[in-house]
Amino acid sequence: MTQRASQLGSEHSPHAAVSVHDLTVAYHRKPVLWDVDLDIPSGKLVAIVGPNGAGKSTLIKAVMELVPKASGLISIYGKQFRKQRHRVAYVPQRESVDWDFPIDAIGVVSMGRYRKIGWCRPVRSQDKRLAMDALKRVGMEEYADRQISQLSGGQQQRVFLARALAQDADIYFMDEPFASVDAATERAIVHVLRDLRSSGKTVIVVHHDLQTVSDYFDHVIMLNMRVVAHGTVEEVFTNENLRKTYGGRLTLLDEAAGLLARQSSKV
Amino acid sequence: MIWTPIDTWICVIASLCAAACVLPGCILVLRRMSLMGDAISHTVLPGIAIAFLVTGSREPTAMLIGAVIIGLLTAFLVQAIETLGKIETGAAIGIVFTVLFAAGLVLMRQAVDHVDIDPDCVLYGAVEFAYFDQITIGSWAVPRAAVVNGVALIANAIIILIFYKEFKITSFDSALAMTQGIRPSTMHYLLMTMTAATAVAAFETVGSILVIAMLIVPASAAYLLTDKYGAMFLIAIAIAIVGSIGGHISAVTIPPVFGFSGTSTAGAMAVVVGFLFFLTWIFSPKHGVWSAAMRRKRVQQDIIREDILGLLWRLEERSRENSDISFENALCIPKRSVKRAIRHLQKLGNICLEYPLWRLTEQGRKEAALIVRSHRLWETYLDKHFPQDVYQLHQSAERLEHVTSTQMQSRLGDAEKDPHGSKVPPSPDN
Amino acid sequence: MNAGHSISDVSFVFPTAEQIWRVLVLEEYNTRVVILGVMALGIAAGIVGTFLLLRKRALTADALSHATLPGITVAFMVMVGLGMQGKSMFGLMVGAFIFGCVGVLLILGIRRTTILKDDAAIGIVLSVLFGLGLCLLRLATEMPTGNAAGLNGFIFGKASSMVAGDTKAISIVAICIGVIVLTLRKEFTALCFDEKFGAAQGWPILRLDIVLMSLVAIVTVIALQSVGLVLAVAMLIVPAASARYWCTKIGSLLLVSALIGCLGGWLGGVVSALVPRMPTGPVIVLVCGGWFVFSFIFGPVNGIVVRLWKVWRLNRRVAMQHILRAMFEVSSEDTLCNFESIANTRSWPQTQVKRLLSRLERHRFATRKGNCWSLTALGMAEAKRVVRNHRLWETYLINFADIAPNHVDRDADMIEHVLGTSMVEKLEALLGNDPITTSPHPLGERG
User: Fold this and answer.
1) Which chains have 3+ CB pairs within 8 A of B?
2) Nearest C-alpha of chain A: how many angstroms from B284?
3) Which 8-state DSSP code applies to residue A85?
4) C311 and C268, same domain (yes or no)
5) Quick one: closest CA in C to A163, which residue?
6) Most C-beta atoms within 10 A of its C-beta, which of A122, A180, A204, B350?
7) Is domain B292-411 given the CATH code 1.20.120.450 in the classification?
8) Residue C270 Cα distances to C165, C220, C283, angstroms
9) Is the pLDDT score of A4 beyond 50?
10) Is the pLDDT of residue B13 over 60?
11) Chain A residue closest to C113 (CA)?
12) Where are the beta strands (DSSP E) in chain A?
């Protein structure tokens, strides 16, 4: 297996920001991703689109080893994720945390610096300053001292984005940052995305709004349990591919893969 | 030791009590509210203490009313703190029951000089002495605890039978219940009342903390054993009864082995029920840890056998002898597994040895053809719907072929050749 | 105590002022040992409890504390078996700690490998291990040496058995716990707030969890002697939960929680020293519970009173704006508006209209002439502002939200009252700052 994989690895471009080989993920005994194989080029804005339950979020979570994978190999700039962790930043879905948590906006953004600060050391004033800069970039500096539950949904999203910016990473994974946000937030996010691209960063966004894909992104990954198509927006984002992606799942494959996952599950 | 009628009565009382607890316990476990049961069984104490201070006697009805009122108050306060106070359920439960329990302890201490029950008894129960407190029904002298727990069991059984489907629907999907005109909150408070009443009936027998063992442990074990709602109640009752009788027996028989006279029956009941839970945890046919491991192993062995059959079939197809091939290298599996699989296949009559070669028998060839057919049909199917490179195609089909039923095979369609150009073996039906 | 009095008669000799004072300022040696011990415990529990609560593991701690009972008895039996005096406090505490951790591991095991949920796992471990503890306790009391009678005290706590050495040990442990939590404050915050993010950053989530639960186990163990294992969890969660109604930042939360725990220990210790038949542990828990009730009702963050006050103020403002608008609309036809025409503008009870009108008068927004009312200049200005907000919002809804004009009035009704100046400015910018003088829908047609 490993031999094969290394052969395969050489076929893929060494400059890919993220390479995924034969990734299969099963969740609660149901397959979510089946043999996903892709290279995400560096320095691009990449959208992951697909219907509900297509495994979009799971894909980025699997890349960051947040969900266990059934099989497959993943590399970030040609190396294992574990060794490249400092180069990756993550914006989770807004619903994933407890917004009543006793912390203010600047506190959340400072979390992006925790790794650089290191164990057991307090947050220094220079980290506070960097966090403040990140908040400014998303236009939220006025709200730095607000408790996070007092922010609107869009503002919460921007705080999350600022936290990722404070990490100063090379690759940014964002899970539905545009989901139910106001127009101002959407503009702020797009502005930040373009900013990131111009400084050579790679941004991978789980996206649900097909209307805006061609405006906001360079590359698109069309996902429905498997990769239906991926490449530049001009080449790949066609009606034909959209029909394939949203035209329902391959019921047979779904069924068989489900059987397989159930047989190998532990519980 | 000598078995006396007292021991029999202890077993009867304990079983009645355990069975009475199990009924609301199953619903608590299903509704993921086990810890409300925990909280209510603790808050029985202040209920009893208050009833005591108000009436000044051990009047059972007063105690029952006191405990039920405090039980409902617990449920209400938990809900209030959770919704109004924005504190998560677990913490809300923890706050309410510890504070009420502390109040109960203080009240009990205040009254302790006038009362003949003590906090210890409330906590650990005194099933050993329950026999001596008898009442006469007709011409029979029956321990009071047996009557109390028996009544609780019957009352719970009646309530559950009457509201069988209502409990089912509210536990499963409270939104659906709402649309059907069943108010989940009504059912919630009914369940809380049941739990509190059962706990107060049981506190003398197993003690208020061990009520929780009887509420939750048998129900959890039953949950691992069956997927049926009704069966869960019956299995849980059986486990509870076995646990309580086993508990008493081990309480009087095991300690003497080590030179002690005996131990707490209530505690032993909890331990035995816990042990039964441990057994189901490991060995439950559906959800047990060990059973799942066995199942996985069996599937792996099936896969190895199918792979060997497929390999032999492909060699025959290319009219190559298998003298120079080692199965373990070709299939990347350890030698031991190959040996076992070959022995098994030989026993099934799928292959036979024509020294030095393994050959497929007629029957084996048929089965192998089916497997290869599945494989190649999958390759065709995947190639059509989901273009990918040849290596991937093969890998996917390699895994999928083992879970393909004949019904699935027919839905895969038919093809002459697979994407690599190999012939797809024909379906055995035509 | 004279026997024979009725149950309701729980009278006691009230302690003299001097006695109270001596206890309060810790002059009495015996009570000083106990009170200082429970104060230190309160601080440690308050600090660790804050993170326990934020991690949403409150009841796991309950199972942990119940699981210490078999640990204590096993440690006792082992020590007696080895020929030691069975009462080495340290040995018992080690046993308690080990079994507490075993309890937590069992919960994790059940949760990971079965389809049972957290609640059932906690209930099972709690009750079965407690039952095991009871069995062993009964056996331990039968042991010929060692005198196990005192082990009972760990269930409900027996603060009177504390000696100066215990207090010293508890204080040292409390200080260590405080230092550990403060140095790991930022890691624990990340763990509790956003576990996934922490994991993606490479924080060892599992190990941090283990550290947190070990700290919880240590606090439980030092609480056994004074508060007892049944109520130990209260020391962890009640002060921390109360603190949440007072502040919104981790730092102050830790401080307030420790303070409440400390005060609870002090007051509880004092009360149980002064009043007969008041067991220390439960009294401390009751004092903390009292703090919780107080915070829950009066706390400035999400407290009941504060929230009711906010709702009440909003309702009052809305009613004021409604009456101003009603008067503005009526007075556009006639500067004097009689009571009926105002009351007819919307369906509201006449008593309310009367009350509102007199409030307008008090605020000098309107003057009364018999049955007729008119807006003053001040009232007119305010009414214009209110109407303007209302119409701006109506126009926005018609233009941007595709709401039918005859429904728009009702929608605008709900939102206009919460429009801040910044929102109004945004609306103006969006709609072009033209002074809106007429309603976008005919006033007669109310939806």
Assistant:
1) A, C
2) 11
3) G
4) no
5) C197
6) A204
7) no
8) 20, 22, 10
9) no
10) yes
11) A267
12) 18-27, 30-40, 45-49, 71-76, 88-91, 171-175, 202-206, 219-224, 226-232
